[in-house]
Write a structure and sequence with these properties.
The chain folds into 2 domains: 1-30; 36-163, Apoptosis, Tumor Necrosis Factor Receptor Associated Protein 2, Chain A (Sandwich). It is 15% helix and 42% strand. Strands 2, 3, 4, 7 and 8 form a 5-stranded antiparallel beta sheet that branches. A 4-stranded antiparallel beta sheet has the order 1-9-5-6, with no helix packed on it. The longest helix has 17 residues, at 10-26. β3 (70-81) and β4 (84-95) form a beta hairpin. It is mainly beta. The protein has helices at residues 10-26, 57-60, 147-150, and strands at residues 36-44, 62-66, 70-81, 84-95, 102-111, 116-123, 135-137, 142-144, 153-163.
Length: 172
């Protein structure tokens, strides 16, 4: 459905939108939303199967560290969860600042052809976020997937959003 007036062409509307954006930039208009820091990391990984009681469990976990204001130690492996093959993509989260912050942790796994195998997302709860100096974990970042598909994982991508305001809060 067209949302612009019938007498205006689509290209005219794009030009008008670009002019408005330029004017806002030139006149240094303040944004109607909180600043969001984006932290990204991607790399190669081969998920290994392990269980909680395995003695060599720590050797089988692929660990990824990232972040500065809020640090994330992400742990990737697979195993069974309630009799289902599951990718574990949990993260240990630490707010290293002196103020509460909100975060959203997003992780995606791909096969060698860059096809999506699975994804999961987890974030801070409530309106207060993660308190200054507080630690938590994303123990529920679980991706149920057939084991033969899990074995095709060759890479991951992580995107984290960090803000003073709850992530996804509508602009005013």
């Amino acid at each position: 459905m067209q949302s612009y007036p019938r007498h205006c062409s689509r290209s005219f509307m794009y030009l008008l939108a670009a002019c408005i954006n330029l004017a806002l930039f030139v006149f240094n208009a303040t944004p109607a939303h909180a600043a969001v820091t984006i932290v990204r990391k991607s790399g190669q990984c081969k998920l290994q199967k392990t269980r909680f009681r395995d003695r060599d469990r720590k050797k089988k976990i692929h660990v990824v560290n990232l972040g500065k204001t809020i640090t994330f130690k992400c742990e990737f492996y697979y195993g069974e969860f309630i009799r289902k093959s599951t990718i574990y993509a949990n993260a240990h989260v630490h707010n290293t600042t002196k103020k509460a912050l909100h975060y959203r942790y997003n992780v995606v796994f791909f096969d060698k052809d860059k096809n999506l195998v699975g994804c999961e997302s987890h974030g801070s709860f409530g309106s207060k976020g993660l308190a200054a100096g507080e630690k938590t974990q994303t123990g529920s970042c679980l991706i149920e997937c057939p084991e033969h598909i899990i074995k095709t994982v060759t890479s991951y991508q992580i995107t984290i959003y960090i803000s003073d305001e709850p992530i996804g809060k509508p602009s005013k």
